[in-house]
Amino acid sequence: MKNSIFFLCLVVLIPIQLNAQISTSVAEKYSHWMVVKAMRCNFMPHGTTGSAQTWNFSGLTPINANDTAKVKYVPRNATMPFPTASVVRKEGNDYTFFEFAPDGVYELGSLDSSSNPPDTLTYTNTKRVMQHPMTYTQMFTDSFALSDGADSGIGMITDTVESFGTLILPYDTFENVIRMRITEMMDGTVSGVPASIRTVSYRWYDRTHHAPLLRLDSVDINGSKSQEAYYLL
Question: How far apart are CA 19 and CA 161, in angstroms?
Answer without folding.
Answer: 13
